Amino acid sequence: MTTAAYAAVDWGTSSFRLWIIGENGAILAERRSGEGMTTAATAGFSAILESHLRAVSAAPHLPVVICGMAGARQGWVEAGYLDTPAPLAAIVGAAVTVADDNRDIRILPGLAQRDEAAADVMRGEETQLLGALSSLEGGSHLVCMPGTHSKWVRVTGGVVEGFSTFMTGELFEVISRHSILSHTLANGGAFDGSDPAFASAVAAAVRNPALATNLLFSIRAGQLLHGLAATQAKARLSGILIGLEIGGAHGLAKAGSNICLVASGPLAALYQSALSAAELPSVTIDADDAVRLGLAAAARALWPA
Amino acid sequence: MTTAAYAAVDWGTSSFRLWIIGENGAILAERRSGEGMTTAATAGFSAILESHLRAVSAAPHLPVVICGMAGARQGWVEAGYLDTPAPLAAIVGAAVTVADDNRDIRILPGLAQRDEAAADVMRGEETQLLGALSSLEGGSHLVCMPGTHSKWVRVTGGVVEGFSTFMTGELFEVISRHSILSHTLANGGAFDGSDPAFASAVAAAVRNPALATNLLFSIRAGQLLHGLAATQAKARLSGILIGLEIGGAHGLAKAGSNICLVASGPLAALYQSALSAAELPSVTIDADDAVRLGLAAAARALWPA
């Protein structure tokens, strides 16, 4: 039987994931919970981590490598930022150590782009990226990591040259809940990327991004004048925001960059459809695999066998 | 002393304005309140109108011309829409009459653009536009009426050829209050169009509209990395949204159109600054004057002396 080598933790704002990794690299145990930074700031980071480690009977001295919001200023121990351009492998050297009597606990830093005209930050995605890069060829890549705050990263030869965050997921939530469109979207069902209303909205936003907030209002007018259904209205809202993001991010990339989508489940399917609607070919890497592989790469560098 | 000829009412979603106009066209009395459609839907349109008419001792048979949300489906009496392209003067012929024992009460219709790819509606702005046009030269005009839902109207020779609504004001409110930027903007003071943070944000959004939601996130990152102050953050949020609107609306206009801004007070000053930052010359017409002049033009056609 394989012995546990380390624990890998992806600690987000609202989620906690832990894997126990064996000496042969196998996943020996896995834990998921909603105890993200927001919960941990009150309940205590150490208490939450130890309770999950106890639940999988981890040895008291098993080392732990962590990425994500645990390293934010309002997190456990601030892990700062590495400035772009940054070779991704350098995040390991900039890890901070958490003072602990038993374990060796390291938190990986985020990345910062300090250029005032394009100030940007990420925390957690740099580790996902480190994992994703292991399965990509050389050359220039444009890596899309969709979510509440979607990140698009320009990488060449393992170096992050720059990146851009788009508030897509958050705007979808805020507009759905708090704007006049909340009436139009009320009781809308689930939609997916195969909905023509989604694909045409993506294409419209890519074609004329300056009309984005007009396209948003046209959802309301479409309901008033043409009885646009709530589910189609949701699909259009999503398509407009994702199309705006894709057009903007693609415009910043080096010509000939390969687009790589790092995502899982329904979000991966939605962005695959959006990239197709924008006529941009892409490959997909599973986001869960990517963050685990990134933490594994960091662990190998921190604690060589 | 001049005798009252009619009452003119601009009945918005959240505001009510009434003028008593004399036979010589002079303003004999004026009333303003927050009893818009939202309040009137409960309190009663007739009750609110009559209370304001009593307050200025209007004669029981004084006729009333109304524009705005009183004519919406959820308003007093539905006044429908005139379809674009529409000669503005035709709104008078499409006015509906409210059943009333004493007075002749007419509600003017809105405008609808039924093209599915650019579905749009306005209600109230068509009357403002009718008033604004009386002070414009011939030729093609691009008329900007900023607000919660900014309208940009393409007019040639008194005919509305098309128009586009941008959700600018509402997005500013919703993002300020409900997104992650609420923390960054908290306790920000007043800003105006002379703030360089506003002008540079307008220019950035006009230059690269596809980056709009990335520019929004850069406000948050600017606070984290460069200590961007809350007031500057508010100015940037406003500039990004207004710049996006201006770029989009201008892109739809006929080459050589004259830009006319119909606005009052601080909003007029803000849009004047934004149009300057976008290097687009414009003339300004006061919005309050415009709606009153539009209602007056309708009254003259409805009740010729």
Question: What does this protein structure show overall?
Answer:
- Two copies of one chain form a homodimer.
- Chain A is globular, with a radius of gyration of 21 Å.
- Chain A has helices at 37-43, 45-55, 90-93, 125-133, 168-178, 181-185, 196-207, 212-226, 230-252, 265-277, 287-302, and strands spanning 4-11, 16-22, 27-33, 64-68, 81-83, 86-87, 96-98, 105-107, 110-113, 120-122, 140-145, 150-156, 159-166, 258-262, 282-285.
- The model of chain A has no long low-confidence stretch (mean pLDDT 96).
- Chain A is an alpha/beta fold.
- Chain A folds into two domains: 1-113, Nucleotidyltransferase, domain 5; 124-305, Nucleotidyltransferase, domain 5, CATH 3.30.420.310.
- Chain A has a six-stranded mixed beta sheet, with helices on one face.
- Chain A starts with a strand and ends with a helix.
- Chain A is built from eleven helices and 15 strands.
- Chain A is 41% helix and 25% strand.
- The interface between A and B is large, with 48 and 48 residues.
